[in-house]
Write a structure and sequence with these properties.
24-stranded parallel β-sheet, mainly beta, 43% strand, single chain, elongated
């Protein structure tokens, strides 16, 4: 949604392509019966370990498809030690003349720690591959690493309990086209352990049931898949402790952990994740996708979908001072918590989290609070250019914000639902500012309206559009209560969101130019790539210019949309609300007219026939109320309101 900018370009440059000058080639082929000096496929080394230990750098080692162990004996400390200046390539048949003739995906080349009894994994190599002490010219490309068993019996600092697939301390090798599968560690890092300022590069890698653990290291990971990892610890796919990896185009899928099914960040970690997807991850505790503790990750253009946790934060759990997470252009869809709060995000204990250009859709805390976001204990979430649609909870259908301070600027809430109150927001102690925002058609599942459930604290609303308006005990300024005219409103059937709608504004919407640009934050991320980080945020959630008319529009989207086949709607508007709905007796139809004019208010049955006329004729500007239904048969009806500028319909259910 947001344009590329220098920050992203700088980060991407870190993970740029690596050029390797052609080097002398040494050949390895299992079962080779020639001279065994590696000078050709015929005279290839039969064992990779021999080639690695004897070749003079710089060189390339070409390895034919087969299974290779780090020792022909049973020494569990034996490992394939990578070397700077030596690039090892797998995926060959054993006849190729050029490296680009190989197919590593078809001709699997396996580095295996299975050195003892095939039926006893506990006697396998502790580390199949070691990258310690290398730089980026140490290359491993086109292999499957498997059967490592880091099951040492020492304490938490025992190196034989980590890095079963690859152990890397103070190294920076290049790992490309590599699969980590079937490795196990008793402590952490079953696939890879990076430690002590390791800075390896992992490109097009697949962690199948294996974890990457980064401790005080900054590896670069690109085009990676982390899936099917199950760990009794935290961080199923990636665990970061005091680490700042750069991760781009990575998918975290179907991982399970105690906390942070896909990832954990702790001890001041500051990872950057760009274009990452977190799908269907699970936590036994909290943070279905990511658990963040006293760390400052940055997520850019990333998606969180279908992640779950029982105790809160279906997608993200963020806690403790120093947790300064930022999400730019991120989508949170269909995440949930079964017993806790924060269907997508949970913040506590002084955590900070900033969302820019975010979308929260269809998240649920069915038995808790905050369908999308729950914040407590002096945490500070801030939202800019953000959409909440179709989220649900017991209270706070979209978000529950308790204690601390929070600021919502140009946020759109629509079609969120709660069981007991606060369709859009539940506000507790602390200070909340809602600026340039739209809160419309949020309420309870039983049809009762109610955008905000207020249980304490100060709420200030300025230059916003709110269904039901704004009044004491809130501080209100320039708040209007009139239909914002979305291109397509969201739709529910029962407790199921069936259409998230299109929440852009139609041409002629009263929300256009109704905001105040001064409320926009500074563009510290330079989202428009103009080098100016002091200007006011110049773009909306779609990357369109933020101020297109006399002033900024309300909500996440800027600019009116002329819907095909429909004329532009002039500023004269009619807003319609029906309450209670369903109604056991009479229902009240409330109209808000911005300008005087003729209005027809009719009740239609399910066949579209007029069964009652509540008003037909001129009305002055302002609010009007009509009561109907106490003597009508139970059933479903439509309330239709027509004026010179609009035709609006609302569903009404009579249950008596």
């Amino acid at each position: 949604m947001c344009a590329a900018h220098p920050l992203f370009a700088l980060l991407t440059a870190i993970a740029g392509a690596i050029s390797v000058t052609a080097q002398p080639v040494v050949y390895v082929r299992a079962g080779a019966s020639g001279a065994g000096d590696g000078t050709s496929w015929q005279d290839a080394y039969p064992e990779l370990q021999s080639a690695l230990s004897q070749v003079a750098a710089p060189a390339e080692i070409w390895v034919a498809s087969s299974v290779y162990q780090p020792t022909v004996g049973v020494d569990r400390l034996a490992t394939f030690q990578l070397r700077s200046g030596v690039a090892v390539y797998g995926g060959f048949v054993g006849t190729e003349d050029h490296r680009d003739e190989r197919d590593w995906a078809v001709h699997e080349t396996v580095l295996s720690g299975e050195i003892g009894s095939p039926t006893t994994p506990n006697d396998n190599s502790y580390h199949v591959v070691t990258g310690s002490g290398t730089d980026t010219t140490a290359v491993l490309d086109g292999f499957t690493i498997t059967a490592g068993r880091a099951n040492g019996t020492g304490g938490v600092d025992d190196p034989l309990r980590v890095g079963a697939g690859m152990y890397n301390v103070g190294g920076g090798p290049t790992i490309r086209h590599v699969v980590f599968r079937g490795n196990a560690a008793s402590l952490a890092g079953s696939g890879v352990w990076n430690d002590a300022n390791s800075s390896g590069r992992f490109d097009r890698v697949w962690f199948d049931g294996n974890q990457m653990f980064n401790r005080e290291s900054d590896p670069v990971v690109s085009d990676a898949l982390f899936e099917n990892v199950t760990t009794v610890g935290s961080g199923g796919g990636v665990a970061n402790s005091g680490a700042s990896p750069y991760i781009e185009r990575a998918t975290f899928r179907n991982n399970t952990a105690r906390d942070g099914g896909g990832m954990i960040n702790a001890a001041g970690s500051a990872p950057v994740c760009v274009d990452c997807d977190f799908e269907d991850n699970r936590a036994v505790g909290t943070g279905g996708a990511v658990y963040n503790q006293a760390s400052a990750p940055l997520f850019v253009r990333s998606a969180f979908e279908g992640n779950t946790s029982p105790n809160g934060g279906g997608a993200l759990f963020n806690e403790e001072a120093g947790s300064d997470m930022v999400c730019i252009d991120c989508h949170f869809r269909n995440n949930s918590t079964s017993n806790g709060s924060g269907g997508a995000v949970y913040l506590r204990l002084f955590a900070h989290l900033t969302f820019i250009d975010a979308v929260f859709e269809g998240n649920a805390a069915a038995d808790g609070r905050g369908g999308a976001v729950f914040s407590e204990s002096s945490s500070e979430p801030h939202f800019v250019n953000t959409v909440f649609v179709g989220n649900q909870a017991r209270t706070g259908g979209a978000a529950t914000l308790l204690t601390g301070s929070r600021r919502l600027v140009n946020v759109t809430f629509a079609g969120n639902r709660s069981q007991l109150g606060g369709g859009a927001l539940e506000i507790g102690f602390g200070e909340t500012e809602v600026l340039n925002s739209v809160l419309w058609d949020n309420g309870r599942f039983d049809g009762q309206p109610g955008e905000i459930l207020h249980t304490g604290g100060a709420l200030t609303m300025r230059h916003s559009l709110v269904s039901g308006g704004c009044g004491p005990p809130f501080t209100c300024e320039a708040v209007i209560d009139v239909d914002p005219l979305f291109v397509r409103p969201p739709a529910w059937i029962g407790t199921m969101l069936v259409d998230g709608g299109d929440l852009r504004l139609r041409a002629g919407s009263p929300a256009i130019d109704a905001g105040l640009a001064a409320y926009l934050p500074a563009d510290i991320w330079d989202l428009d790539d103009d080098g100016d980080t002091t200007e006011l945020l110049p773009l909306d959630i779609l990357g369109q210019p933020r101020v297109q008319g006399a002033d900024v529009d309300l909500g996440a989207y800027e600019g009116g949309v002329l819907v095909a086949g429909e004329p532009a709607v002039p500023p004269a508007q009619v807003a319609v609300r029906v309450a209670p709905n369903p109604a056991a007796g009479a229902a009240t139809v409330m109209l808000d007219l911005l300008t005087a004019g003729p209005v027809d208010v009719a009740i239609l049955d399910v066949l579209g026939r007029r069964v009652a006329t509540l008003h037909a004729g001129a009305l002055p500007a302002g609010r009007h109320a009509f009561t109907w239904g106490d003597r009508a048969p139970a059933g479903v009806y439509a309330v239709r309101v027509r004026s010179d500028s609009a035709s609006l319909t609302r569903r009404l259910t009579l249950s008596h």
